[in-house]
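Progress note, sequence design subtask.
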């Protein structure tokens, strides 16, 4: 089963699963998860081939949706699910294939379409592969080395949260081989949908960053075809990693939606 970090006690409210995107982890969502856990139990997940979850050569959306279903089944009741980017696609497919396990979904900066950002994601994999890490002792030195190939400091900080410096040999907590091999699948969307998939009738909030290009107006129609109750909300001043750039705004939007 997927590794997760649990925040808050069990309450009458449905638990919330937080499903990170590519190169993300439950740790990336720690502060947001803690704030949202004031009214509900929150589980911040590590997806397969990320963080402390298992590694597998298979990394497609049907498999990831089944991973999420397995976590929900351990909770003994339907859950709310918040997914970002890759995690947003896994969340959407979960809702379409296992509607009985899902009350409401929040999809952060993602649509059920194929994206063409492969070059940028592949560059990050190559940068992590190329970086000498076996002699590292500090995150500041790791940042200096990664900066030779990754210009954006926010991107470096995000990636470096998954560089293990303490326990055992220094290592990236990603299965880079599997992620690289499956990158076209990660950027894609499964069409046709798996057998038994149907439009999700429950509430669905689609958040998108005002400076992001991942949720274009022309994507609203395919979203509503699968999620008839879809609502759209813009997080001003945020790009694709809106939870890192505008965490309080994301928290407020999610809390308002879940508290209705």
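Output:
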């Amino acid at each position: 089963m997927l590794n997760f970090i649990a925040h808050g006690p069990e309450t009458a409210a449905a638990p919330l699963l937080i499903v990170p995107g590519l190169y993300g982890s439950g740790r990336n969502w720690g502060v947001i998860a803690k704030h949202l856990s004031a009214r509900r139990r929150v589980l911040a997940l590590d997806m397969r081939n990320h963080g402390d979850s298992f590694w597998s050569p298979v990394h497609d959306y049907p498999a990831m949706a089944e991973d999420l279903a397995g976590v929900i089944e351990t909770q003994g009741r339907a859950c709310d699910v918040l997914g970002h980017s890759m995690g947003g696609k896994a969340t959407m497919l979960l809702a379409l294939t296992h509607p009985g396990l899902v009350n409401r979904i929040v999809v952060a900066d993602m649509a059920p379409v194929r994206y063409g950002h492969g070059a940028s994601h592949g560059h990050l994999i190559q940068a992590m592969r190329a970086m000498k890490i076996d002699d590292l002792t500090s995150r500041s030195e790791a940042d200096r080395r990664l900066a030779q190939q990754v210009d954006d400091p926010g991107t470096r900080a995000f990636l470096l949260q998954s560089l293990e410096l303490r326990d055992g040999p220094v290592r990236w907590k990603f299965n880079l081989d599997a992620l690289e091999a499956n990158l076209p699948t990660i950027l894609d969307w499964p069409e046709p949908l798996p057998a038994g998939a149907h439009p999700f009738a429950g509430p669905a909030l689609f958040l998108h960053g005002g400076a992001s290009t991942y949720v274009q107006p022309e994507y609203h129609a395919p979203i509503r075809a699968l999620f008839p109750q879809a609502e759209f909300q813009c997080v001003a001043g945020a790009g694709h990693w809106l939870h890192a750039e505008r965490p309080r705004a994301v928290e407020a939007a999610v809390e308002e939606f879940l508290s209705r």
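The chain has a mean pLDDT of 96. Work on this subtask will continue into the next period as scheduled.
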